[in-house]
Amino acid sequence: MTDALRTDFAPLLDIRRAAVVGASDRGLGYTLIENLSAHGGEVVGIHPTRETAGGKPCVPSIHELPWKPDVVAIGLGARTIVGALDEAIAAGHRHFVIPGLGAEAAGEEGDAARAAVRARLIDADAVCVGFNCMGLAVPERPSPWIGTISTGFRPGGVAAIVGSGSIGEAVLAFGPRVGFRNVVSIGSETSRDAADWLAFHAQDEGTRAIGLFLEAVRRPAAFREALARAADAEKPVVVIKVGRSEVAARNAMAHTGAIVGSDQAFDALCRSYGAIRVDDYGDWLEQLEVLGSPRRPRGLRTVLLTNSGGEAELVADVADAAGMPLTPLPADLAAEIDAAYPFHGVHNPIDYWAFADAEVIVPDLALRCASHPDVDNVIINIDQSWRFTNDERQNAEDACGAMADAALASGAFCAVLSTAVSDPSDAAVHAAARGGVPVLIGAGMGMRAIARAARWTPTKPEAPAPWETPACPELERESGHLAEADAKAVLARYGVQAPREIRAANPEEARAAAAAIGTTVVVKVDGPAHKEKYGGVILGCTDPDRAAAAAERIGAPVLVCEEIRGGAEVLCGLVRDQLYGPIVVVGVGGSWAEAVGDTARAALGPISQADAERLVRSVKPLERRLDDADVATVAATLVALGRVAHDHPRVAEIDVNPLVIRDGSGVALDGLIVLSDN
After folding, report:
1. Alpha carbons 369 and 334: distance in angstroms, whole number
2. CB–CB of 576/645 below 8 Å?
3. Between 443-455 and 309-321, two packed helices, what is the crossing angle to 10 degrees?
4. Which of 110, 176, 298, 446 would staple 105 via disulfide (CB 3.0–4.6 Å)?
């Protein structure tokens, strides 16, 4: 496949007529007939000997269909599928769903069939869901899906694109809390892949939010363009990508047949385009529920209503951890509520228990808070469970209805949060959905989802300013590590300053170099950077004689460098990912860089100055220590590293650690450049 995006999926989301090749009264062929016949779908089976299958008529050949179907679903095995696909393509059909050819088609025969099917589909530029997938499910529409479509699968604005069939099944069994545009199980991504589906939903008017569950990205450039289209359309993308652990990455490669790529690089890609990355299926669904609602959080100013003091404290804690701390009530709103009810000093969270009947106070408080101009969001924390059999269930359902009324009347974002993680009753969900109000479960998952949605903005990388490419003869050599002095010479041409330093071939030259520098020096082995841990660096040579002695001890040739002390130490680096290209990295520098690697952040390179400054500020220890001028200096170094990698494709890695920031300037104490073979 090329990097061009193909978005010709619309007929699959509005299927009226379908053909099922391999129709039967049981198994895959039967399930396809059943799901495609639902909601008024017209289905004809194709079978050489049967007159009916699954209660539907059959014809012997695709050429004998009474009409042209919107989709051809093929439920055949490895021995017969290629001929059937050839026949369908020859008859002019271009939209297919092929659930099979997975583990059941093992061995050489299965491999040959998969290769042939892929080649036929690509040559015909046909649209195919699969092979080795569950198919496509659209709420209240005929669907070529080989699993169960539950009655709770309701229409809405969330599109789910999943690389795992079992995850697709779990989504369809989730119930009515999330309204879906569709769920597509992409399987082996033959002629169309996740990037194509993402681009389609970016332009689809019925889609408000897009969920991705991925094992691999097959076409990084196309996927990046699809993320850009989603950002342009202001549609949030929520991503789970498995393969972070060594075991998961190995399994994903074996399962998908695609290179997984580094997790750090994928994270940088998501951050560059504002995609929300989560780690767990529960967080993924809660996030999609919030973003799929017709109203999104307007900001971080949130009022919490509750009937439990202990649960209110829990939600307040998790809200703070999620970066959305509960703020005091606006003074006029607090006075208004105190005048209406005997709180005698109401505060946020508002624990309304016992101050009035719930059916009176909940709708009133919800509307007052939602209508206030200094309140962005109103959340009620009330436990939900379909297992409730007493007044608790009615109270929960009434609260959902009250929040729907408040949302409709005020236009504010309102949500229902349950500390418990039981499913709410369908009646509660539908009461809330009437007003576009999500019903979230789990205090942590729910508050994280709301906070992320409140902070989300459509994002795209800014194009870097143009620059001139300097000549760098040091890079015209065989693969491997450059000597530190050579690496620093390259970086200097791109604007990265180094200390004063002189190469010395022997101790006498080291003595002369120290005298020429005229201050305390460091003597290093004249080789790649990071020599300190191997005894290749001697600090604090306060006079030329000590520099000469250090050179004697280490073994010439050496590098004699001006010693720089004080200032903040920052790690600036770059790595060329095999899938995503150059990735710039910034984090805490010096000997602590590896120990606190979780504080580092990465972005796609080359990078603009503005995006680089935002990246530096995203590393909290650096944001706290560096002023604006320091941030700009670090960012300029990241810009330079991205330019080096862009200009010289053989540059596989750059490491500046530490970059010392002092008095508004940056000095690279160590510099490393690694060249690849090609």
Report:
1. 10
2. yes
3. 40
4. 110
